[in-house]
Design brief:
With 457 residues, this protein is an alpha+beta fold. It has helices at residues 8-61, 63-75, 142-192, 208-258, 263-291, 304-321, 340-356, 388-391, 413-423; strands at 83-87, 93-95, 106-114, 118-130, 133-140, 300-303, 325-330, 335-338, 363-371, 374-381, 427-432, 437-444, 455-456. 54% of the residues lie in helices and 19% in strands. The strands form 3 sheets. Strands 11-12-10-9-7-13 form a 6-stranded mixed sheet, covered by helices on one side. Strands 2-1-5-4-3 form a 5-stranded antiparallel sheet.
Length: 457
């Protein structure tokens, strides 16, 4: 099963959450900067208005009134009280308690010494009252810092809530998308396994997934119809030809009984060729039956170890008569769910294929082992093998590497083996045995097994 890390559904959901979080972060940054600038402008406006008021009092009432006004304001216990100072050209503080260096003219951030907190920052405006007096009105930036801290705290909490809710939504969305996609994937896997009448699930919501499922179902209906037509044509041709060929064979046998010595061999050759055609049509019908999945109704639990051992015992003498040796190694008591006769036929096809395409004196080895949830049935020979470029081609119907067509067979043996493997949810794997060819049928166990005991023959 696909992990969350490699799941496209979760990647899409998490990407959406990341974009949402980035958008919220950018929005928060814009809001923070806007509020910070607005608070700063408000503080600047307060300082500017106060400075203009004191300048007006200075020009109207003189320096004594300015000193009284500054002293009165500094004595106030208002939490929003401002800071004041009047500096001489040499930097001496003439009036006020603002402990800072004589600043340049204009509105800017300045540093000062707070009696309670030490070094601190303020927003100050410096204006010349006269050539020898410079007024500084400042406001502690603590109010802005508190506002900034409040905004940051609120935003951080909100951002965390958005991230957590987004993460939860991403997990839910990813699980939903994954569940819908797995439903379609499960239907496809069932079809691949041989259940060609399986269709994609469609819910009552009629959303995009349901539209896709309905489109796929229409496509599958069309494909199934075409395959049924093709299968029916192949079956009809095979059935229609088997009957006249059987009659022809019977007639040849009757003719052989009353034929002379010269006609006997000719009729016997005709009977042999008719038998080959009947065998060919039988193989075509068998492959069509396997590929249709109709034989799944014959599936049952059986001991494949006992079946393979029995098969190897019965075939070893005939292999030896052909000048080759058959050895086998079978892991006992392996139980699997499948069609016993079909798997036996596939194993026979692999053995006969190894016999047919290896020279006299070759060794053929049959192995049955299990690993995890899989059973491996392997036939290995030390013959000439098959080129890598031809391995994918030889499992197709009527494919024969012998271009002269002098060897026996019709090129259907490996095609049937592949069809049987696919019917059981497995596969046929061809590899180079260096020398020779290794043909492995891989089957899912779908069952438990007894303790392993290795038997060597």
């Amino acid at each position: 099963m696909t992990s969350r890390k490699s799941s496209a559904a979760y990647r899409i959901a998490f990407a959406y959450t990341a974009i949402l979080a980035l958008g919220v972060a950018l929005l928060g940054l814009v809001i923070f900067e806007t509020m910070h600038l607005d608070f700063t402008r408000q503080l600047d406006a307060t300082v500017t208005d106060e400075a203009r008021t004191l300048v007006s009092e200075y020009h109207n009432d003189g320096g004594t009134e300015l000193a009284d006004a500054i002293a009165q304001r500094e004595a106030s216990r208002s939490p929003t009280r401002l800071l004041y100072a009047v500096f001489a050209p040499d930097g001496r503080r003439l009036l006020g308690s603002l402990d800072t260096a004589r600043p340049a003219l204009g509105l800017r951030d300045i540093g000062f010494i707070d009696p309670r907190e030490g070094a601190d920052a303020a927003r100050g405006l410096a204006i010349d009252l006269s050539p020898r007096e410079r007024l500084v009105v400042a406001a502690d930036r603590e109010s802005i810092e508190r506002a900034d801290q409040t905004v940051i705290t609120v935003f951080a909490a909100g951002f965390l809530a958005v991230c957590l809710s987004g993460l939860a939504s991403a997990l839910l969305l990813g699980a939903y998308l994954r569940r819908r996609l797995q439903a379609i994937s499960g239907g496809a896997e069932a079809i691949i396994a041989g259940d060609v009448r399986r269709r994609m699930p469609v819910s009552l919501r009629q959303d995009e997934f349901d539209e896709l499922a309905q489109t796929l179902n229409r496509m599958l209906d069309r494909i199934e119809g075409l395959l049924d037509n093709l299968r029916q044509v192949s079956s009809d041709v095979a059935h229609d030809l088997r009957t006249p060929l059987a009659r022809l064979r019977n007639g040849l046998e009757e003719g052989l009984a009353g034929a002379g010595a010269s006609a006997g061999p000719v009729i016997e050759d005709g009977i042999r060729r008719v038998d080959e055609l009947l065998s060919l049509f039988g193989a075509i019908l068998r492959i069509a039956e396997v590929e249709s999945g109709e034989t799944r109704k014959f599936f049952a639990m059986f001991d494949i170890s006992a079946m393979i051992t029995e098969l190897a015992d019965s075939y070893a003498p005939s292999v030896a008569e052909g000048g080759r040796t058959l050895r086998w190694s079978v892991e006992p008591a392996l139980i699997m769910d499948g069609d016993r006769d079909l798997i036996a036929q596939a194993a026979i096809n692999l053995i006969e294929n190894a016999q047919r395409h290896t020279p006299t004196g070759s060794r053929i080895r049959l192995t049955l082992v299990s690993s995890g949830a899989w059973i491996y049935l392997q036939i290995v020979d030390n013959g000439p093998g098959v080129a890598k470029t031809d391995r994918a081609r030889i499992v197709e119907r009527f494919t024969r590497l012998d271009r002269s067509r002098t060897t026996e067979g019709h090129g259907l043996g490996l095609n049937l083996v592949r069809a049987v493997a696919r019917l059981h949810g497995g596969q046929l794997v061809l590899r180079d045995a260096d020398p020779g060819l290794s043909a492995t049928m891989e089957f899912p166990v779908r069952s438990t097994r007894h303790p392993k005991i290795e038997v060597e023959q």
